Amino acid sequence: MAGGKQTPRQKMINLMYLVFIAMMAMNVSVEVITAFGLMNEKFEKANVTSEQINTVLLQGLEMRAQDDPTRYSEPYEKALAVQKLSSNFYNYLNSLKADATQGFEIDPETGKLPYEQMVKGAGIDDNWFAGDGYSTKGNEIIAEFKNYRDSFKAIVGNDTKYKFLIDDIEDRLNTNDVKNRGGVDISFLTYHFRGFPAVASLSYLSALQNDVRELEHEAYNLFLGNSLKQAAS
Fold first, then answer.
1. Rounded to whole angstroms, how far apart are CA atoms 210 and 11?
2. Most exposed among 84, 108, 191, 225, judged by the fewest C-beta atoms under 10 Å?
3. Helix, strand, or coil here: 178?
4. Does residue 231 register a pLDDT over 60?
5. What 8-state DSSP symbol labels residue 3?
6. What is the pLDDT of residues 24-47, one digit of tens each?
7. What is the number of other CB atoms lying within 10 angstroms of the CB of residue 224?
8. Are 230 and 2 in contact (CB under 8 A)?
9. How far is residue 233's CA from residue 227's CA, in Å, rounded to a whole number?
């Protein structure tokens, strides 16, 4: 999870990650399934709010670049690159939700997915995995994560004042193998998605989108010259 002092929202997200993992070893009740659907709604609302806040920060950086181009032109250009990169990756994560919701239709009356029915995650299991490994789609997903991490770090550069951000990028969006309770290495997508209820995978993808928005937020704060403490908050 993210390094440094965590906000209450990030602590909630971290807790949800642990719950996702625990679900691998338990039978999930309808109530729990529905709760994950409601949590997904919370993540999606938080993501909209985060986008609005980031837009304000980017506008503020633009104004500073106009008023003091010597100091802020370069950070603003970096911010624009981060915004484009992050928006593309955010949208890519959003496209993956089609696999999580495959076979489920939104109720026209409530405007919501039938969470209580989203127990099986066949859309992801069938599309992302082949045998004991990844399918072509699974390998594509891992490549997209890597591209986002590498491109983000390339934009930020090696300045030590951005070390906090670089570490956070690796922490939030790391796709290395994960050790299970038995000490066995499990591939990232297998550990987090394979065999999960569809609604849990949907919520996890929304949480990953939240990570993207948070990374944007941290970057804009640092580009604005806000302190590390402010950025971490």
1. 13
2. 108
3. strand
4. no
5. -
6. 434 556 777 788 888 899 999 999
7. 18
8. no
9. 10
Report residue 185: phi and psi, to 5°.
Answer: -75, 125
Which residues, in sequence order, are CB contacts of 126 under 8 Å at separation 6+?
A: none
Tokens of 81: 């690159």
pTM: 0.84
Residue 94 CA to residue 107 CA, distance in Å, equals 20
Strand, helix or coil for residue 196: coil
Q: Which residue has the tokens 């928006």?
A: 87
114/27 Cα distance (integer angstroms): 19
User: Counting Cβ atoms within 10 Å, is residue 153 exposed (0-12), middle (13-18) or buried (19+)?
Assistant: middle
Using alpha carbons, list the distances in angstroms from residue 164 to 4, 34, 218, 231: 8, 36, 9, 9
Q: Measured between alpha carbons, how far is residue 30 from residues 34, 37, 90 in Å?
A: 6, 11, 29
Query: Do residues 165 and 2 make contact, with C-beta atoms less than 8 angstroms apart?
Result: no
